[in-house]
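REQUEST FORM: STRUCTURE PREDICTION
Request ID: SP-0412
Submitted by: Lab K.M.
Chain count: 1
Length (residues): 343
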Amino acid sequence: MVSSIIFENEELKILDQTLLPLEKKYISIRNLEEGCEAIESLRIRGAPAIGVMSALTIFIEMKRLYQEKVLNSKEDFYYHLQISLEKIGNTRPTAVNLFYSIETIRNEFKEYQFFDIEEALEFLKKIAIRIWKEDQTLCEKIGQNAQSLIFDGAKILTHCNTGSLASSGKGTALGAIYTAIEQGKRIFVFNTETRPLLQGSRLTSFELMEANIPNTLITDLMVASVIQNHKIDMILVGADRIAKNGDTANKIGTLSIAIIAKYFNIPFYVLAPSTTIDFTIDDGTLIPIEERKESEVKEFLNCKSTVKDVKVYNPAFDVTPSHLITAIITEKGIFRYPYWFEK
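STATUS: Completed
RESULT:
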């Protein structure tokens, strides 16, 4: 599997996913500005990966500030830590794993009393590494928990990218497919293009081909036809934020697929770590939906695809109501409708 994040010798690198599948290139994240730009530009994407990378970026930034002698006291450290957490929290509003990492760091430093800045940096590094390793463990457990639902010979449809490029481990929905293959199950995958930025055709197809997993790429609008022709046994998708009642925000187009699945009576499964559940909101109407720039719809790879002055609506996510979701699989088990998640 391809690693989306590399952290070695206190140096952070990410795979630049804007270049895939044409070029496989790792870039260094040397400060907060580069980390924020990488998240906003989708050089790194996928809710779990954003959460992990943000925690590591905060450590990289605080270490840089210390080396440049900006941090000369405990007060300096706390001030710049809060500023950095706030800035990285403003990069993308929907993926809750980002805010999980931010709140984890904030809460742990509320309880932590340090003697010097070097000690504080070491503590911050340990938190970031723990979040990184935790994500890998959660992905593994999600994949294992999903195996009772995935049978030998299954034809699975997935939307967007939910594998190792979207996490620091195997991934969620795609991770469960990797686990099924490891167990000797014969799996065939249909994956959507995932417009407008083609995370399916550029990233999921890249991952599946790298892993030698049989797959077929379809456009987003082919889903109903493919299901109607009895080519799909189940649908596996990830999530960027799940409300307490199970309403789920995921890549735009997920809601359409869930409606189609309900019509054709195809199981529709959401796979995500419990850190994706937002226990502060009761339902999906309270999930903030990121709207992205018009150019992502108007052009691709500098190729214009419409008239210059046309207005564009470009939400990055939609919300699937919980009653359309057959089951939500986390590292804690398989949960079925009606949902009500509590901490």
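NOTES: Residues 117-145 form the longest helix (29 residues).
Reviewed by: T.R.
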